[in-house]
Amino acid sequence: MTVSRLPLDGIRVIDFSRVLAGPLCSALLGDLGADVIKIESPDGDDYRAIGPFARGESGLFSAMNRNKRSVVIDLKTADGQMLAQSLCAQADVVVENFRPGVADRLGIGYETLSARHPKLVYASVSGFGQTGPESHRPAYDIILQALCGLMDATGAPDGEPTLVGDSVSDVVSGIFASWGVLAALVARDRTGKGTHVDVSMFDATLSLTATLVARYATTGVTQQRVGNRHPSSAPFGAYRASDGHFVVAVLNNKLFGRLADAINHPELADDPRFASDTSRCSHEGELRVRIEQWAATRSVAEVNATLSDAGVPAAPIQNVQQALDSEHARTRGLLVDTVAADGSTVRVPAQPVKFSAYATTRTTRAPRIGEHTSTVLEDLLRLDTSAIASLAAAGVVRIGEGDTKSEFVQEKDHV
Fold first, then answer.
1. Where is the signal peptide (predicted)?
2. Do the bridges between strand 236-240 and strand 245-249 make them parallel or antiparallel, or are there none, so unpaired?
């Protein structure tokens, strides 16, 4: 048996979630050493069927379900519900992202499980939370971006509301859920009691837009779209060079003076139109003309080198490939090579937080569907081979290909 010796070593998580927000929550816990047992329906997590694919496996599923073991249980059967309840009784954490009420109907709701196991930390991730007039509604990332003001604040002033270029509502909800689980585990160590962690994607997305919320709370005015510039500072935005675009971030007079010198217009620092952050913002268009006239004869690389040498925060606009293939990203270990189910090498994202007391966190491949059904039922519930075979024959569980002991199985006598 390999012991992870990571911050969450010894913590067991039963994960009923699927697609993105819930699975990301449990993946983050698994990165830190938790034993995450993913309970899937006989058809599997929907993300298994969503591309892009490599070697027949979904890259999205692989990323969000790293460090997990897969157990297939049909929760629509009475025997399946009993198995799930028994597994949860030996867990520290349960994660689910059903619509409110569905977990209760499947026999795995918080009230049912906590009555048997009061120390259980139970995290529910849903579109609108467990309470409120919209709690019954399903939600997708685009729905939350639209409802929470994120689309309205993104895009050109005279253009259409624009989606942020990733599923940020799902992602931030998964991050907040993992944060809530960790806080609940700390409290449990102090009080001996578990709790229900209610994570609403609506709430999480509004919390993500921290400056939009703060501006509205202070002024009562909704921020309007400003495109690729800052709503209250200048020059702070994206500008064109001869071969592409770059960004500049100037927030004070000292930095503005450096910028003025770097673009060969030192007189701008003494111009009353640009004497403060507020006045520069009011005359952002005039500053843009000066900056882009200077940059028009220079490449992005030349612009970046000149401004960086002058101490002005600047950067080229990179795509994801350029960012992940950079020397800095490689040094930080943001993509990890791990062994796929077929023995080939697959790259999986690693969680970004570094701990001085731990050399590295864990990143192992996502499981094949039902890969650990027999192993988990044998180890945790002490079922023998014939009992598991009977359950499989009845359609209550599914035994996956290559069902073997996991390299990060943990043993627990109690929670």
1. none
2. antiparallel
Residue boundaries of the structural domains of the chain: 12-208+330-398, 236-240+245-316
Between CA 109 and CA 83, with CA 13 as vertex, the angle to 5 degrees is: 55
Say whether pLDDT at 203 is over 50.
yes
The conformation of residue 330, written as its DSSP 8-state character, comes to H
Q: Among candidates 17, 11, 186, 171, which has minimal Cα distance to 93?
A: 11
Angle at 153 between CA 126 and CA 144, to 5 degrees: 15
In CATH terms, the fold of domain 12-208+330-398 is Rossmann fold (3.40.50)
State the catalytic residue, choosing from 117, 136, 196, 230: 230
Q: Does 230 participate in catalysis according to the annotation?
A: yes
User: Does residue 4 register a pLDDT over 60?
Assistant: no
Q: What's the whole-model pTM score?
A: 0.90
30 and 67 Cβ atoms separated by less than 8 Å = yes
pLDDT digits (tens, 9 = 90+) for 239-248: 999 999 999 9
Tell which CATH classification among 3.20.20.150, 3.30.1540.10, 3.40.50.2000, 2.102.10.10 matches the domain 236-240+245-316. 3.30.1540.10
pLDDT of residue 5: 85
